[in-house]
Amino acid sequence: MEYTDIMRWWASLEHHTGDRANLRRCHTVNDVQLEPAYHKLLAILDNLYINHDQLAVMAGVLSHITTNNERSSTATQLAECMSELRFRRLLSVNEPDDLMLAMIRAVAMLKGSTYIIDIANAAYSWDDETKKAWALDYFSAGGKKHD
After folding, report:
1. Assigned domain for 49 exists
2. H helix or E strand, kind and range, residue 67
3. Structure pTM?
4. pLDDT digits (tens, 9 = 90+) for 85-116
């Protein structure tokens, strides 16, 4: 997957605020897949091997990010504001709809500022390896113990 294309699509949401607003109102991956902005991303990526549910999770989450903060991984940033219990709940999510909502909540805790490429990659490839990497980053950064 070309992350420069994803960054270009995300940046275009700044100029197409209606697209961003429509994506932000989506509560399920099916809702996202019905939005023209999702189809613009799909056209940009132009790849027959795309997992549509995972791409919809990514698009839904990215629409909530207002600032690209590359200072550290998303999980490391979450260690500053998310309790260990909430973080463990996030790691336990497996269903695309639940993942999208959980990641949107995480982005909200970060006040819309996180590392876009990192969270895009995680949203698209949410598997055991991604979860392990996030856990390593979170706990290495000394994640919060309480809410």
Report:
1. yes
2. strand 67-68
3. 0.93
4. 999 999 999 999 999 999 999 999 999 999 99
